[in-house]
Amino acid sequence: MAYITNCFQTSMFDQMLFPNDIEGVLMEMAFTPEMRHQAAEIRQNILMNGLARFNDNGAQWRRPVNIERVILVVGQVETDPSLKHGTQSIRTNLGLLKAVCQANPDAYIVYKPHPVVWAGMHKKGSDLRDMQLWCDECVGDVALSHMLLKVNEVHVMTSLAGFEAVLRNKKVSCYGRSFYAGWGLTHDMVPMPDRPRQLDVVDLIAGAFFSLPRYIRRLEGKLGSQDTAPEKIQSLWRHQPTPMLWTARA
Predict the structure, then answer these.
(1) 127: Cβ–Cβ under 8 A, 6 or more apart, which residues?
(2) pTM of the model as a whole
(3) Cβ neighbours for 158, distance < 8 A, ≥ 6 positions apart
(4) CA max distance for the chain
(5) Which has the higher per-residue pLDDT, 176 or 118?
(6) For the chain, where are the alpha helices, taking DSSP H only?
(7) Which residue in 2, 4, 161, 237 has the fewest CB atoms around it within 10 Å?
(8) How far is CA 138 from CA 36, 55, 57, 119, 157, in A?
C-alpha cells in the first residue's frame, strides 16, 4: 500500500532517541470529529476493498484445523534502515522468528518473508531451510491481506504489516519502534516511555494520512490539498489506471 512507507519509522542510535515528524504529529495533534469521521471512512474502505501494500495474486492459505492460536511472523528486508535505527536486540528475520517461537511454544507459527526476500530464498534455498526450523509453516506467495483475516496475532520488528494488522483489530506485537507502536494499540517489546499518549486506531489513521503526507495525482502531476487527500485515497485506487504517488513533507 503506497500510502505509508518506512520513512515513518523512529530512529534510535546509541540509546539516543530522535523523534521524527509522524511521532510529533501523533503526540501533539488534536483530532477533530471531522478528521476522525474521515479516518473511519478510509479504514472502512481499506477493509472492504482488501487494499494492501502488495498486489493479491489470488493464492489462498488455509488455516490449520483444530488450532486455537495462530501467529503470523512477518519478515523484512534486513537492509531496511528502520531495522538499524528502530530496533534494539532483534534486528534479523531469523532472530525475530526464534524469539517468537521460544516465547510461544503452544502456538502454530506461520512465517511470511518479505516478497523481495522470498524471491531470494527461492534461488538460494539455504535461508529458507534455516527459517523453517523455527516455524510450523513458511508462506511466501499468499497476500498479507488474505492471511490477516485468518490469524490471531501478528509479530513484527518494524514492518508496516503491523500497521495493516492494527487496522484489522489484530493483536500486534512489535519488537521495534514502529510509528504505530507505543500508543496503546500494540504489545511493545521495546519500552517507549517517550510516547505516553494513548490513541485509538482512528486517531492513528488520521495522524498518518492527513498531516504528514502530501498527495500527487500521477496523471495530472499536481499536488492535492489535505482536504481532498482522503477522497483520493478512497476513490483513485480502483479507477485510476496509474497509481497515486505521494511525497512526505519536508
Answers:
(1) 117, 120, 121
(2) 0.81
(3) 6, 9, 76, 80, 82, 83, 86, 87, 174, 176, 177, 178
(4) 53
(5) 176
(6) 21-28, 33-49, 81-86, 93-103, 115-124, 126-132, 144-148, 161-167, 201-210, 229-239
(7) 2
(8) 38, 19, 17, 13, 17
Q: What nine digits make up the cell of 144? A: 498479507
Q: 232: which 3 cell numbers?
A: 483520493
C-alpha cell at 208: 498518518
- Closest CA relative to residue 138, chosen from 115, 111, 169, 114: 111
Residue partners of 160: CB distance under 8 A and separation at least 6: 1, 4, 5, 6, 53, 178
pLDDT, tens digit (0-9, with 9 covering 90-100), for 100-159: 999 999 999 999 999 888 878 766 555 778 888 999 999 988 989 899 999 999 999 999
